[in-house]
What does this fold into?
Amino acid sequence: MGAGGCVAALWPFLASLSPSAQALALGAPVEADISKVAPGQQVTFVWRNQPVWVLNRTPKMLETLPKWDPRLSDPECKQNQQPAYCQNEHRSIKPQYLVMIGICTHLGCSPHLKAKFPDPTVQENWLGGYLCACHGSKYDLSGRVEKDQPAPLNMVVPPYRYKSDTVIQIGVDPSAEELKNLNAHAA
Ligand code: FES
It folds into this structure.
């Protein structure tokens, strides 16, 4: 079926939805109130039918990231699995909050947060991160994958922007002005 047929088939379904549900089905940005995500806690939001995690990383959790580097397949995140404004050591706009699509890059399972460390039940010298129970892939607390795992790539960071200090819009990039401020802040 061509693209026109797909659209035609989709339309009766969309027309049956309320305007806000239609927008969500088409992938409109989703607003996530992160004000109640406690330090160390992760909350799941849904965007384009995918789980998007917001993890409030404590300073202790952030300290683990550089320790992971030698174990990782792509520590500098060169493989384009995040927007350019999140290609940094914490893979996020603000170091504290990780925003990431919670889907393993092997075959699409949803990994589990294993934030406590050490934890020999996950791995000797475990530093805290994510474990995919399907085939054992391990990621750090910014979704960077360990070397020699079934998963080939880091988990995906979606486009997002801060609408305010406590509300994130998932699915939309920061404005040019916001990006300028981010770059100035990072310099
Ligand atoms: S789906 Fe995650 S390791 Fe296979």
Notes: The radius of gyration is 18 Å. Residues 3-15 form the longest helix (13 residues).
